[in-house]
Write a structure and sequence with these properties.
5-stranded antiparallel sheet, 4-stranded antiparallel sheet
Length: 240
Amino acid sequence: MLTVLLRSVVLVCVAILSLRMMGKRQIGQLQPFELVIAIMIADLATTPMESLDIPLWRGILPMFSLIILHQTFSLLSMKSQKMRSFLSGTPTVVIRNGKIDPKALEKLCFNLNDLLEELRSGGALSPTEVGTAIMETSGKLSVFPTSRQRSLTPRDVGLETGYEGVPLTLILDGQLEKNNIPLSGKDEPWLREQLQKLGIADFRDVLLCYVDTDGLMTVHRYQGGEPERIQSMSQKEVCW
């Protein structure tokens, strides 16, 4: 029983490592050849797991061989447009200015019911509300509304807006994010000083602390309550 458990743990760890080595794109966006490799890795992991007569290396070695094959395909895709098209396909426009392209749907083996379902998922009630719809190589439908249907933007009314980027996390689960502190252009004593302005003396009292690109620091305490905000730096000091 212990042997089966240990073999299972080893094979699962190797399978996870194999998928991680294939990159984050593998997890969030499967291309056709990546899907095939992922299925084969899962199958290779289950075979030694089911039979104790099969050595572990007979499952592990082919997994890493598939990883090498995947990396080779990925490199070829980066270097050659033709190879990229062969392995992953090309995006296909299925709706242009509210008009459905039946030939494109036929080529993709994509029926109208599937199309309407994807449009609703993209926030469009009917094809006439869609300016362009593109079937991506991952199988996801990208839906872009017509200019009359999209939301009003600052650009439409001639407003100038400042830079808006990803907030920088400084404290997470009561622990200082030491890699992020240098990115802010500040140091740990500065962070402690900002927290003291809110009556916080210890990082362990903070559930989450981050700074927006407008220089506002937001602090969530473990005790709950409303998040507290303080202007910790000017927009000119924002450097990430």
